[in-house]
TrEMBL record:
Positions of the Integrase catalytic domain: 493-664
InterPro entries, per database record: DNA/RNA_pol_sf (IPR043502), Integrase_cat-core (IPR001584), PolX-like_BBD (IPR054722), Retrotran_Ty1/copia-like (IPR039537), Rev_trsase/Diguanyl_cyclase (IPR043128), RNaseH-like_sf (IPR012337), RNaseH_sf (IPR036397), RVT_2 (IPR013103)
Residue span of region Disordered: 286-310, 770-865
Entry keywords, A to Z: Aspartyl protease, ATP-binding, DNA integration, DNA recombination, DNA-directed DNA polymerase, Endonuclease, Hydrolase, Magnesium, Metal-binding, Multifunctional enzyme, Nuclease, Nucleotide-binding, Nucleotidyltransferase, Protease, RNA-directed DNA polymerase, Transferase, Viral release from host cell, Virion maturation
Transmembrane segments: none
Function: The aspartyl protease (PR) mediates the proteolytic cleavages of the Gag and Gag-Pol polyproteins after assembly of the VLP.
Entry protein name: Integrase catalytic domain-containing protein
Low complexity bias: start-end ranges: 297-308, 781-828
Extent of Polar residues compositional bias: 770-780, 844-860
Length: 1375
């Protein structure tokens, strides 16, 4: 016990000492942490931030910072998350990221640790041998050219550091030798001798010596300036004293003043010694100019006024030589830029200044302005405050260049002496001429007459002056423009204003329609203009027909309201039927838009758009005719003209573009329309190295980006969007003497009027109107649009029938009574995608002509050329029938009797089925509009059908469900193969007016169509074509009837029915029936005919566009007719065939511009239907290209056309549906990690006996990490596909044994129950499928890749491999 007591005090003391030690340690740690943070803040604040040009300085300072903080190990290795320093390591990552400027930080965004950033910058810093040579050459050229020696030494030190690499390493002694050797001699001989006399010298010694030398030079310069100023002051004081003494001594007495007479000026009252005139003349003469010999004077009297000369602040150095007028001499003694040619000045102002030349003679300047010197490297040197006067040459002031931020380096000791002028990215060099002068040559630029007038689309002088005021680089000089005189002749104007005070931006739209006498190359006949009232911003929309106007307006308003976040309150149009119709009226009613219309024959009430109409198409005419561009490019020219008009500056000093978008437009990207443009051909698109690197194209217009241009190749009508373009603005693509107007038309001996009018120059009349139109607002002048329109230019009347290109309003048309309606001839097939342009445009359109005594008549209400197929951009649509669009047009056509019979037949059919019942009009009911649809069958039969406008229906009011089942595409092959296996008969049936048999569940009311007569509404009792629920109601009706007569519906596919041995396949109103005997099928037809009108089409022949031919052991399915139609539509009928549908995997290029005018989506839709029905050989190519169809490009369109070439060569290929066997084979394959997205592609092919039942190429949803996983996913996709097919076979009573075919051994091993480490990451679905394989009797077999049929569905194959697999696809082809 005693021992314990004695030890207690010792223990407490130890505990106290321990706690104090711990506290002191914690304090020291806290202070250490605080000191380390201060150190970090200081050293990283000294790091040179990386700006893209100082990589060596950044590396040195960052390395020093990390070493100063004791973290140099961070730059040598990665710190793992398990190490205790990992948190500190992450914090230093943030510090090193902050050493980058905002514009360079993106270089290391991919680096996630300090070591990754350091390693990347070290690799980035390493120089090549060529770079080191270039940097060393630059170092040797760094001679001293003025300024302080210290700055020069700093420049040399920076270049020493930049030069350091594995190729070059300069120690301090070598650097000292280089610096001393670069000192200019003999100016610094003493300094160089003083430095070389030392035994040992360092860079620090040289810098100190340079600082001393700078101080000496500075002090001597100050003393010299002080002495000069003192001498000037003394001379001025002396002159003032002389003047004062002269005035004192020159005052004679009043008595003698009248007797004195000066012999110098011959005036009374003073003597020659007191003559003010003589004193003034003597004081203003220079010492180099002798005195004027006047009476009483001596030539030796040479008094000068030195103080007056010193008051001139600007002194110029002049030369007696007179170099080329494009030469600019760099003068270090010149204190202002000077020129002797006032045409060099931009935006000159009147400003007087007196300059003194080196000879002492004064030079007076009255003008000053800016100048742009065009250099041979493409740069432009912009100068300000350039004086114009009687100088001997153009002078560049070195002093002014320094003030403007330029650095100038003189290199006169090399073999080729140069002067380098640099400012930012601007770098140019001046050379020394034979006279020893440093000269910059102003490259002559061909000045096209009225250049900016042509570039801006021929605006008037007022527009040019306004643009020039805001953009001085735009030349506002305008001479007499013959194109404007020829194409902008107008009549006198009306002075009727239209005032809307409370209308904001995009709230009021003025709309009008213009009809062109020529179809555009894209098939458009009309141009619709939409003008915003507030800003006068114009939109142009080419249209193929007048009936498209309402839908175009609706789409335009919906799109623009969402984009600009503005609401349209008013639209103003004329009373044409294209604007006044139920479609547009209902849209305006639903959206709260007030539709204002003009009074008949009073277009001045919509004068804003009428004047814009005249301005736009006056510009279109001018652009087309001045560039000799064919008139079928009028739609593309209209877009360009509107783009230019929107940037014309109006009388309020603003352009419509600036008002609409609240930002100023740019003009630097403008070029002359129709000029020659050479588009660069990328290296990848040139076949050999000797091919041209550019293509001669026609400049067509602009894009949304100022850097991109729309260029046209008239030889194949291809439009390119390029940025790398060289323009030749003084050369038009089409010459004036070329036959460009007729070269694309086939002429004949009898085409004296048509062909001659197209090839001759267009005649433009003053605005010609009908008798009822008294020079309305189509002739109004608009000073805010074009001042040249005020000039009424008369044109001699035409003496021959010539084509006119006049914009006509939507209410009038310029057509002679004798002109025949346009007709369409069969279009000539093309040979390839680069087809012959001579075949695109045949001379099928009659020209509009006037005789001298003829007056134009009003526009006809029915356009007889409706339905004539337009020549579309890139493809054709051929139809020999003229189809009316409305009921009125049908009754106004030459074959109106045929159409009237078709209408009566349709009405009789509707009454027969009791489709509707007449009810009184009720305001609480919202009826659905109806319309007539007319067509011509392939047999020539006239067909009219009444349809409802289902887009006006409302969900929950007049319809609920709409989804109607359709059969899977494999069912057709299964049914036909099963029939051939069982030797059953096959018949094809059609239900006439199927929808009219289906009763409706909801009350639906429609408006009576034209031709019904009476008033009130129609209540539909049966389904009508066009209603959303009509297909579903028809399916329910026929399905219930089939089940009532004993048929059983398949649960897997609800369009397949079975009764005993009879199978029925239903696709809407098309039916395929197969049974044991003809009697069984006949009895079924009789049962169906009791309720429906059934047409027995006999043996199956043409089903869903598929031609089916029956043989004793097989059916052959072909889509040759459909393929021919597609080839004809896309001008590929006579194209060169391709051996394979896809030669190499197509990859999307992000830099390639998107061209929405290309019909890529339509073409891919046609190809998908072919691939899914009868042509598995193109399945992969179409599926792969369809992934990119949302961004149509030229290369994508070209890849699609290769599939068309392959189809053209294999158009007669047929798919065989033969007899089935007991083995159902499922081939699955995949391509691992395809394309830039790295998604794999699954290929599935189902074969049974001699029949190909199903095939599919699909993109896998998830990215696979191994080929084994990709194959397993393909097997899973195949299993999901085969299960419904197995159920269908079970339903029809045909038992098969399923075999999986795979070419991946690892996948087969896993699905046979084996274990692999890589399978642990597989999806749950794949593991579930493995379990199914273990529990069922499914077998999976290995097949060699050469015989893997699904391989064709996953990747492009070579021709040999492709042909070998094609023979096993049950495709009879001629490949």
């Amino acid at each position: 016990m005693s021992g314990n007591k004695t030890n207690t005090p010792d223990l407490s003391l130890v505990l106290q000492q321990l706690s104090s030690a711990i506290a002191s340690m914690s304090k020291s740690q806290d202070s250490g942490k605080q000191d380390s943070k201060l150190t970090e803040t200081f050293v990283f604040g000294q790091v040179s931030k990386y700006d893209g040009n100082n990589v060596k300085a950044w590396i040195n300072t960052v390395r020093s910072a990390f070493e100063a903080c004791g973290k140099g190990d961070y730059l040598k290795r990665e710190i793992s998350p398990q190490e205790p320093e990992y948190i500190e390591y992450c914090r230093y990552y943030g510090l090193i990221i902050f050493t980058f400027n905002p514009n360079t930080i993106e270089l290391v965004q991919h680096c996630k640790t300090v070591f990754q950033v350091w390693s990347y910058m070290i690799r980035f810093e390493k120089d090549t041998f060529a770079t080191s040579v270039r940097k060393f050459t630059t170092l040797l050229k760094t001679t001293y050219n003025g300024g302080t020696l210290r700055k020069w030494s700093e420049l040399l030190t920076a270049r020493f550091e930049d030069l350091e690499s594995e190729w070059v390493s300069l120690n301090e002694s070598t650097r000292c030798v280089l610096i001393i050797s670069l000192l200019p001699r003999p100016s610094f001989d003493r300094l160089a001798d003083r430095l070389t006399s030392r035994d040992k010298i360092t860079m620090k010694d040289i810098i100190n010596a340079f600082v001393e030398e700078d101080e000496k030079n500075k002090s001597s310069s100050l003393s010299t300036k002080r002495q000069d100023s003192e001498s000037i002051i003394k001379q001025a004081a002396k002159a003032a004293v002389q003047k004062k003494s002269f005035h004192k001594s020159s005052k004679p007495s009043s008595s003698n003043r009248s007797e004195l007479k000066c012999t110098y000026c011959h005036r009374n009252g003073h003597s020659v010694d007191q003559c003010h005139t003589k004193f003034w003349d003597d004081g203003h003469k220079t010492k180099n100019v002798p005195q004027t010999n006047r009476p009483g004077t001596s030539a030796t009297n040479t008094n000068t006024n030195s103080a007056n000369r010193q008051a001139r602040s600007v002194v110029l150095k002049c030369t007696n030589r007179l170099p080329n007028g494009n030469s600019w001499i760099i003068d270090s003694g010149c204190t202002s830029h000077a020129t002797n040619d006032d045409s060099n000045l931009i935006h000159p102002v009147q400003k007087s200044a007196v300059f003194e030349a080196a000879g002492g003679s004064p030079i007076i300047s009255e003008k000053m302005g800016g100048t742009i010197i065009n250099l041979n490297n493409g740069h432009k040197l912009q100068l300000s405050n350039v004086a114009f006067g009687n100088f001997n040459s153009n002078l560049l002031s070195v002093q002014k260049l320094f003030e403007d931020g330029y650095s100038i380096i003189f290199d006169g000791e090399s073999e080729n002496p140069t002067v380098t002028i640099r400012k930012g990215d601007f770098v140019t060099e001046a050379s020394r001429n034979d006279d020893g002068l440093w000269v910059l040559i102003n490259q002559p630029v061909h000045k096209m007459f009225n250049l900016w007038h042509h570039r801006l689309g021929h605006p008037g002088k007022t527009i040019l002056d306004r643009v020039h005021f805001n953009h001085p680089e735009v030349d506002n000089k305008l001479g007499n423009c013959h194109e404007c005189c020829q194409n902008k002749s107008i009549a006198s104007s009306h002075k009727l204003p239209m005032i809307y005070k409370d209308v904001g931006l995009f709230e009021l739209l003025h709309i009008d329609l213009w009809e062109s006498p020529t179809l555009s190359v894209s098939g458009c006949k009309y141009g619709m203009l939409i003008v915003d009232h507030y800003s006068r911003f114009c939109f142009g929309i080419p249209l193929k027909s007048k009936s498209d106007a309402a839908e175009a307006i609706i789409d335009f308003i919906n799109f623009r309201q969402r984009r600009h976040k503005r609401v349209v309150r008013f639209i103003r149009t004329d009373c044409g039927r294209e604007f006044v119709n139920s479609t547009l009226d209902n849209f305006c009613l639903e959206n709260g838009i007030e539709h204002e219309t003009t009074v008949g024959y009073a277009p001045e009430q919509n004068g804003i758009v009428e004047r814009m109409n005249r301005t736009v198409f006056g510009t279109v005419r001018t652009l087309l005719n001045s560039a000799n561009v064919p008139h079928y490019y009028w739609a593309e020219t209209m877009i360009t003209a509107i783009c230019l008009i929107n940037i014309w500056i109006r009388d309020d000093g603003l352009s419509p573009y600036e008002k609409f978008f609240d930002k100023k437009p740019t003009y630097n990207h403008l070029r002359t329309f129709g000029c020659v443009a050479y588009g660069h051909i990328p290296k990848g698109k040139r076949v050999t190295k000797l091919d041209p690197t550019s293509k001669r194209l026609l400049f067509l217009g602009y894009t949304k980006s100022p850097a991109m241009y729309r260029l046209l190749d008239p030889t194949d009508h291809e439009v390119y969007i390029m940025h790398d373009v060289k323009f030749v603005e003084n050369e038009m693509y089409f010459s004036s003497d070329s036959t460009n107007q007729s070269s694309y038309h086939h002429s004949s001996d009898s085409s004296s009027s048509t062909g001659e009018s197209l090839s001759s120059a267009l005649v433009h009349f003053n605005s010609i109107t009908s008798d009822n139109e008294t020079n309305t607002s189509t002739q109004q002048s608009d000073n805010s649009l074009d001042s040249s329109d005020n000039n009424d230019i008369s044109v001699l009347p035409s003496t021959s029938s010539q084509s006119s290109f006049l914009p006509s309003s939507s209410s009038t048309s310029i057509m002679s009574p004798s002109s025949s309606p346009s007709s369409s001839s069969t279009l000539i097939d093309q040979h390839d995608s680069d087809y012959n342009p001579d075949d695109d445009f045949s001379d099928t359109r009659s020209s509009l002509s006037f005789d001298n005594d003829e007056q134009p008549v009003q526009r006809q209400l029915s356009r007889e050329n409706r339905g004539v197929p337009p020549i579309r951009f890139g493809f054709k649509c051929v139809n020999s029938h003229v189809i009316p669009a409305t009921y009125a047009e049908a009754l106004g056509m030459p074959d109106a009797d045929k159409w009237r019979e078709a209408i009566h037949a349709e009405i009789d059919q509707l009454q027969k089925y009791k489709v509707f019942a007449k009810v009184p009009h009720d305001d609480s009911i919202r009826p659905i509009p109806t319309k007539w649809i007319f067509t011509r069958k392939r047999t020539g039969k006239y067909k009219a059908r009444l349809v409802a406008c289902g887009y006006r229906q409302q969900l929950g009011v007049d319809y609920n469900d709409t989804a109607s089942p359709t059969p899977d595409r494999s069912l057709t092959n299964i049914v036909l193969s099963w029939a051939k296996t069982c030797r059953y008969k096959v018949r094809q049936l059609d239900v006439r007016t199927a929808f009219l048999n289906a009763p409706l569940d909801e009350p639906v009311y429609v408006r009576p169509p034209p031709g019904f007569g009476g008033s009130g509404l129609l209540k539909l009792e049966k389904a009508l074509y066009g209603l959303k629920q009509s297909p579903l109601q028809w399916y329910r009706t026929i399905a219930n009837h089939l089940q009532s007569i004993g048929f059983v519906r398949c649960t897997t596919d609800r369009c397949l029915f079975k009764r005993n041995d009879t199978i029925l396949l239903l696709y809407v109103d098309d039916i395929i029936v197969t049974g044991k005997s003809e009697s069984d099928i006949d009895s079924l037809i009789d049962e169906l005919d009791i309720k429906f009108e059934i047409t027995d089409l006999g043996n199956v022949n043409d089903y869903l566009g598929i031609s089916i031919v029956e043989f004793h052991d097989r059916f052959e399915l072909s889509q040759s007719k459909y393929i021919s139609k597609v080839l004809e539509e896309f001008n590929m009928t006579n194209c060169h065939s391709a051996k394979v549908p896809m030669s190499s995997l197509y990859e999307y290029d992000d830099n390639e511009p998107v061209d929405n005018s290309l019909p890529v989506q339509k073409l891919i839709g046609c190809l998908l239907y072919i691939a899914n029905r009868t042509r598995p050989d193109i399945c992969f190519a179409v599926n792969w290209l369809s992934r990119y169809m949302s961004k149509p490009t030229g290369s994508l369109f070209k890849a699609c056309k290769q599939i068309l070439r392959y189809l053209a060569g294999t158009i007669d290929s047929t798919l065989v549906c033969g007899e089935l066997s007991c083995d159902l084979e499922l081939y699955t394959d995949s391509s691992f990690g395809q394309g830039t997205t790295r998604h794999s592609t699954s290929g599935i092919f189902v074969k049974c006996g001699n029949s190909s039942l199903f095939w599919r190429s699909m993109k896998q949803r998830k990215i696979s990490v191994s080929s084994c996983e990709a194959e397993a996913k393909a097997l899973l996709d195949g299993y999901k596909t085969i299960v419904p097919i197995l159920e269908i076979f079970e339903f029809i009573g045909f038992h098969v044994f399923l075999k999986f075919k795979c070419d991946n051994q690892s996948t087969i091993h896993i699905f046979k129950g084996g274990q692999m480490k890589k399978s642990r990451s597989f999806d749950i679905e794949i593991k579930k499928l493995v379990e199914i394989f273990e529990q069922t009797k499914y077998t999976i077999e290995y097949v060699e890749t050469a015989w893997q049929l699904a391989d064709m569905l996953t990747k492009p194959l070579s021709f040999v491999s492709f042909k070998n697999l094609l023979n096993h696809f049950n495709i009879m082809t001629n490949v």
